[in-house]
Amino acid sequence: xxxxxxxxxxxxxxxxxxxxxxxxxxxxxxxxxxxxxxxxxxxxxxxxxxxxxxxxxxxxxxxxxxxxxxxxxxxxxxxxxxxxxxxxxxxxxxxxxxxxxxxxxxxxxxxxxxxxxxxxxxxxxxxxxxxxxxxxxxxxxxxxxxxxxxxxxxxxxxxxxxxxxxxxxxxxxxxxxxxxxxxxxxxxxxxxxxxxxxxxxxxxxxxxxxxxxxxxxxxxxxxxxxxxxxxxxxxxxxxxxxxxxxxxxxxxxxxxxxxxxxxxxxxxxxxxxxxxxxxxxxxxxxxxxxxxxxxxxxxxxxxxxxxxxxxxxxxxxxxxxxxxxxxxxxxxxxxxxxxxxxxxxxxxxxxxxxxxxxxxxxxxxxxxxxxxxxxxxxxxxxxxxxxxxxxxxxxxxxxxxxxxxxxxxxxxxxxxxxxxxxxxxxxxxxxxxxxxxxxxxxxxxxxxxxxxxxxxxxxxxxxxxxxxxxxxxxxxxxxxxxxxxxxxxxxxxxxxxxxxxxxxxxxxxxxxxxxxxxxxxxxxxxxxxxxxxxxxxxxxxxxxxxxxxxxxxxxxxxxxxxxxxxxxxxxxxxxxxxxxxxxxxxxxxxxxxxxxxxxxxxxxxxxxxxxxxxxxxxxxxxxxxxxxxxxxxxxxxxxxxxxxxxxxxxxxx
Amino acid sequence: xxxxxxxxxxxxxxxxxxxxxxxxxxxxxxxxxxxxxxxxxxxxxxxxxxxxxxxxxxxxxxxxxxxxxxxxxxxxxxxxxxxxxxxxxxxxxxxxxxxxxxxxxxxxxxxxxxxxxxxxxxxxxxxxxxxxxxxxxxxxxxxxxxxxxxxxxxxxxxxxxxxxxxxxxxxxxxxxxxxxxxxxxxxxxxxxxxxxxxxxxxxxxxxxxxxxxxxxxxxxxxxxxxxxxxxxxxxxxxxxxxxxxxxxxxxxxxxxxxxxxxxxxxxxxxxxxxxxxxxxxxxxxxxxxxxxxxxxxxxxxxxxxxxxxxxxxxxxxxxxxxxxxxxxxxxxxxxxxxxxxxxxxxxxxxxxxxxxxxxxxxxxxxxxxxxxx
Lengths: 653, 373
Prior knowledge:
By secondary structure, chain A is of the alpha+beta class.
């Protein structure tokens, strides 16, 4: 017994004692119950009073789902206010990978409902694997209302699928502005790591991915709207509580003349090349076309695998902005520049050189295009006489020409909001020493003076060079409207510039010039220019040339108009165009468009019907052909498995 | 039982109306909460709850009319019968290839483990009633109750149903305690249990039960998994504040954030809409009920009546305390419903059986105040 071992045998607990013990113990049990009751009551009081604020907040964040409404992106407009990049209303469907329950089944259901093609399914699966859970993966955009409704009614069975009405970027000019504007796309995982703004992972939100779209992101982005909705634990929306409108991004007005730009892009036609037009008074970039290009609309909507492969595999490199990143030997288009350098060295423009069809340096013969006899500077420009420039160039040395080339913009990078510009090369003895560790020779001068050898320039730089030659001012390019500053005059004497301009005038307008068929079909406006044909491979001893496209010469032409009062400077570069004949007709038509749109359009329409349609039509046909070939290849591999099934070409665009 | 001169028949006016009103109030509050939990519908929970309560209340009143001696004589058959049912459940379960808790009698499904809670209390009280007071403290005073307790507890644990096992043991141990067993035995076995808990955690608990324990210790670590229930429950109670969000205005329950809002977590559903006031009122209601039960026990003239009333009262207390502590994050999540408020038949049956028997004890002659029998 409890602590009474001594009395164990003698004293038994009586019934009375038991009764007494029971009452005490029952009171104890009742007391324990009361203590529990008090503890529970106290705990509840604590939760409901002291922690009310915290739990009310949690309850609200359960109940209320704040969804951001992506802001409408600011437009790009051209110098006349015409739209270059806009937004259009669309219906879209995204997947939030984190909320997916059954990935395979969901994707399969969506594929069936929206009849997505293999290409898109591949892209969706790839993006689902790469995405980091909370990032929306686009299933489809630009849907019509029926498709949108079809998905919306099945939402309870499709957890993780988010259909939305929103805005998507639209580029009315399509591929023509691909390189100029860039494109938009969903935020990447790395970008979100850096900036955990919830807007970034809002379905439908896109940021600028390249060039102007990327560089002007801050201006274009705007502020998101917000929608507060009451949702159940399973994500079903019960009702909308309140919403705030988005603040659209601000527009960016460019110096581009979109009509001229589109014309230039279209006029490039089936060639691969670039057209740059610059306003000689302000430095405004009026046109910067690079074709072939990609359609930024496709990129912005999530490009398909096969469309991307088609762009990558194309030998004309549609993904490269040739205006700024294409570097070509400028060839004879550098002769006006060389002439200016020669004049700078005090050599008279009237001093002649005898051209017997070439120039002999040691035991090497440097050819000319013809036998020009005694020739002065202006005519040497007009007829593109190599011998004159070999002779004079060797006399003054290329180290005297290179600074002039740099002054005119070659080898320079400009303060422009594009993702990347290539400098190109203006070689001189110092550069050669450093780069190739050898001494500059006369042969190097001879090559460089006619724009071959180490000299490389982008079409854009050639346009700047031309604008500076034409205006005599240190033109600085702008792409944003009304930002041009007064530019200082170049230090070259007016007389020197006039001699060069006279030579360039003769190229186009005087019989015997290399581009007389490039005259503008206008009565009152004369164009001055300079042709260039740059070799891609060295001329072989036997004089025979490879006929393969990639070995063909580049065709170049730089020009300005009107000759008597230069306003527009342009550079046209046709990659492997075969010669300057591929370039100057394009320059002629583009400048004609500035003065007489109807006449220029007539020319273009005739050409386009011969080429097989507009840019859009030709790209669509080309892509279809590409896919057909790919399918054919695939079918050849799977020949044993396939029976009588006929191949159908996907018809996407 | 004094008879009155009244238009109301004595049988009716003699009913313990105060406690019946309390039960009706609690159950009707439950109906109101379940009505709200179903977004303002009597179906599927509120109406069955009400009907079930009324039937069970009637049954409890009928039970209360039975003399205590009847219960005494029936104790052993009842206990053995329920034990056989438990074994039957095990056999049916193992034949059926999976564990189960139900015994399907065709017209209704019975959960024998629920019936075992009062049955164990009755059986152990019956034993101590027969045990001469002088033997209290001998080994004979411990062994038979231990067997009475261990057999069903082991069977229920096999199901496995930890919550019910603990409830059965709790009821039995309380009776043993009140029967006057040496205190030392309780302190020693209490210490032993405390020592054994870590071993039990690692070797006896199923992984899902282990998870419940770890979740109980830190629910915030797993807000979407096992801690979800507790967190959402605390959010419901906390956001209810002092006076609640108002009837039918609970968002946690109506938007399905609170799981089991009509069964185990019904208190959170209530607290969200009725606030601390509703919660304390409910707790007060339970307190009055339990106090009544303990008073019946203390006032009962017979030892059997004392032990049974207190044991059954503590069985009800176990439901209430464990459920409320679970809902408030003071205990791990064990599937124990809240009497009168939670939707569900089995637990209500157990509770009403307990109450019916306590009412039967109340009807017996009381021990005279200040005198020992």
